[in-house]
């Protein structure tokens, strides 16, 4: 007999042993439930046990064909393990959501369920199950927000979505750091082309939901975005992403000069004080303005918003002079969406993004962002001074 057959037999025996064990424990729990029900809840009622009935139940360990469920003479007893007409224990919906989130199509999920349970789930049924997330999305997008956020990171990325035909549309993402230093995705918004007007509507929505006091907004150089941000949060500072600025500058510099220019730029944004940074910029200007006048002029025009982070405690500067925090977040969302080359609808994009965002927010809920504990007192003073 071949090893593969032996392995298959062993796997089947193990699966049956696990199912038997699960069935035994479920039936034990139900016997204890009806015992408690009759002795405590029905103490003053004329009632007693009335045998058993059998039913099937799909579990994550396989299908239990003849689960023995106790019953009472009055028909009042109901186990807490499952609903009267429930045919599976809730794991399947969760598994479907996870598979959908990982990028499996509704057809692929249906085939997988058929293989493990022998039950057929149509793509429409799978889609209906994942549609439950749409109600959760609406509630989540309307939830109240904290009053104070030390930082708001703003960024967007494009995905292919179908509306009659396929085209690229933006997903706006807002990542907040609250006054305690915990990250949270405050909202995401799918559809259209990225614009300053779109961002202003999103920021206004955040304000309406309670986010009234913000110290700093961190984002790239989208035209009009700074004005849109200031329209909603006039007392907040703006930090232009230094990493993006350096990258854009180096792309316009000759290859043989790129390393030297990059090192000279580091002397600016890695200075300990604003005065030292400005001095480093003047040295950079004297050295490179003749060879790269437009690039130097661009830095001079943007210097104020590139050095905003130097007003803040040194412990958090490394995480607020760049949009890296939100770019890593977007990378995680992209990874979940990537398995689908294009999405069949805006709703499909929203469902997968929402499920990913929920995972990230849960993970971050117990992890403070680097340096914010040390900076807490200084940031509180800044809130009090401004608001």
Walk me through what this model shows.
Keywords: DNA recombination, DNA-binding, Transposable element, Transposition. Pfam families: Transposase_mut. Required for the transposition of the insertion element. One of its GO terms (biological process) is DNA transposition. With 387 residues, the protein is of the alpha/beta class. It folds into two domains: 128 residues, no CATH class; 248 residues. Helix content is 54%, strand content 18%. It has a five-stranded mixed beta sheet, with helices on both faces. Strands 1-2 form a two-stranded antiparallel sheet. α8 runs antiparallel to α9 and α13 packs across α14. It is elongated and about 95 Å long. The N and C termini lie far apart (79 Å). The mean pLDDT is 84.
Write the topology of this structure.
Layout: H1 3-41, E1 49-59, E2 62-72, H2 91-101, H3 106-117, H4 123-130, H5 132-141, E3 148-163, E4 165-178, E5 183-190, H6 196-208, E6 213-219, H7 225-232, E7 237-240, H8 242-251, H9 255-269, H10 274-288, H11 293-306, H12 317-320, H13 324-338, H14 346-364, H15 372-386
Parallel strand pairs: 3-6, 6-7
Antiparallel strand pairs: 1-2, 3-4, 4-5
Helix pairs in contact: 2-14, 3-4, 6-7, 8-9, 9-10, 10-11, 13-14
Task: Write a short abstract of this structure.
The chain has 387 residues and is of the alpha/beta class. The chain has helices at 3-41, 91-101, 106-117, 123-130, 132-141, 196-208, 225-232, 242-251, 255-269, 274-288, 293-306, 317-320, 324-338, 346-364, 372-386; strands at 49-59, 62-72, 148-163, 165-178, 183-190, 213-219, 237-240.
